[in-house]
Amino acid sequence: MQTIEQNPPVEQNQALAAALRGKSRHRVLGLTFDDVMRYFFGGNATVALVVLVLIMVFLTKEGMGFFGQNRTNLSVYRKAGLEYVDLMRVPAEEFTALTRTLSDVRLRKFKASVASGKDAQQANEALADFDRFASQFGRAAGEVRGLISDLTEAASAIKTRAQVNADREEEKQMLLHAKMTAEAAAVKLDPVDFGKEIQAITGTLPAWREAAADCRGKLTGAIALGRGASWAQGDAQLQKVLAKAERFAADLGSVEKKMAEWKWDAPIPAYRAFTSYLFGTEWITASFWQDWYGMLPLLTGSLLVSVIAMMIAVPFAISGAIYVSEVASPREKALIKPYIEFVSAIPSVVLGFFGIAILGTVLRSLSEVAWLQWIPGFPMSERLNAATAGCLLALTSIPTIFSLAEDAITNVPKHFKEASFALGATRLQTLVRVLIPASLSGIISAVLLGFGRVVGETMVVLLCAGNRIAIPDFTQGLGAFFQPVHTMTGIIAQEMGEVPNGSIHYRALFMVGIVLFLISLGINYLAQKVVRRYRISIG
Length: 539
What we know:
Elements: H1 8-25, E1 27-28, E2 31-32, H2 33-63, H3 65-79, H4 82-115, H5 120-126, H6 128-139, H7 142-177, H8 181-186, H9 194-197, H10 199-202, H11 205-228, H12 236-261, H13 270-278, E3 283-284, E4 292-293, H14 296-327, H15 330-342, H16 348-367, H17 386-410, H18 414-422, H19 427-438, H20 440-455, H21 459-464, H22 488-495, H23 504-538
Antiparallel strand pairs: 1-2, 3-4
Helix pairs in contact: 2-23, 3-13, 3-23, 4-5, 4-6, 4-7, 4-12, 6-11, 7-11, 11-12, 14-17, 14-20, 15-17, 16-17, 17-20, 18-19, 20-23, 22-23
């Protein structure tokens, strides 16, 4: 029998494999090449994991102490009588808002009179009856405001004394800890007897009853005057003010009931320290009255800006990825892809300056065009708002979404497309019914990672979002997009450098950082889950 010779390429492959094994057996300082590579990359992964754990531990250590301090803060707020006075202040502020609305109504009527051909003097004379009504309306809460002013001073004084005593107690404990006994003994404490001090505030309940009754009587007369006036007929905004004033007068009785039931020594539940932070609608610091650390306006601002950015970025980035991957010629691809990815190299502070100097002014000028007044929120009252920041954030997220989505579409197995063409499908049908569904998980993960990029952006939102700590008025629909907001990243960058180390404000900012870290971690985890599903689907 003739002997079949072994194929020479097979011999070459075996020789190459033997050579590689020889290299892998070559030792460097007692380690093989494979060991060196394993320890090198494994060590880097371990360092990354350790750094991540240290960040989490540091954030938790610095931030979790906030809740204990916040509970103490709320306790002083109640014991000093500030909570009691705020029961009166809330309706008083609602009434002040109604008087401001009346001023807006008068300004509108004045402009309408001038537009009809009257001069300023004639327009003011025509509004004489309205001015008498507005004056009577505004004076209705005079006694209530006077009582609130007196009680504000008394409650503030009690709180100040309690804070001074707490600072001295902390100083004394620090001196004792440092074994400076003589210096600690020299620190004199001035404990506040809240039960005794608060009597001067709660004892004003009869005075409040009289002031509320006086306010209710005067306000009822002013409302009756407005209802019967000819200039109030057909004015929807004014009628709304009168309806709110009627409800305000009726609600004064419920305020009196809350004041009668209020107790200065009622304990603050532990959960209030959490709920006041997670669901609080105010972020007020360095206030003479009371500091509030509410997360909701910052979270809402971050999400609103991010949603605007994604609404702009996703269509452009995904469309660009589809075009470059499946439609563009090699020459176009070599031109488009690098330029889109180059946008990610632009410093965010440069984009922020661009938003302040150019984009914000252009958008506000555009909002004042007459034929665009049908758009909610136009004309824009502020050039720096959520929409301005969202447009710039979209620019920063487009490269991320584009690159990842383009890779996902490109990595779809070629036989999917070839089979579609073999069945007679057009390029558009293949794209819509085969390629995009097959790469959908990768596209979704690209969008999620782009969203994480937007949420964590700092400089653009700090410079261009307007930095107003308030929940946007969503009753205006799309008009909420053009209102100034503040964000979680922005508040940390703005305030962290100015707060004392270890203070409640300091720890509140760390809690914002923890929430932001968890959101980013959750988004990235979700993206990785989607990527894993994408890899399995094409495997």
